[in-house]
Write a structure and sequence with these properties.
Strand content: under 5%
Number of domains: 1
Largest sheet: none
Shape: globular
Radius of gyration: 15 Å
Number of strands: 0
Structural class: mainly alpha
Distance between the termini: 56 Å
Order of helices and strands: HHHHH
Length: 112
Amino acid sequence: MKPDVSDEEIGIRSFQLKKKKAVEQAIEKIRYNLNEDWAGLVNEDIELLEWVLGDMWAFIARDQWDRIAFSELRLPDIYRIIDIAKQIMARKKVGSVGLNQIHNMVKKLAEE
């Protein structure tokens, strides 16, 4: 008997769950660090931040992701990330270019 779900579908779902968990953990660190400033972000900005972090998680190696100090991001950093995400969504910036910009920005925090 053939299973209802293919191995490929299981793999895709597993990938999606891991990405979602990684983004949730990153957002929690950012939110905790920003404290009251987090309340100043509108839902659209938070959704863009979650989206672009998810794409970045899929774009870079896991060991690189694990070294990002999300708890060190400040509000100007978050606004810069959101701005890049908006440019990607508006097709004013190629996705890989924008993701590289974000990655280069946040990996500097791991090096400090």
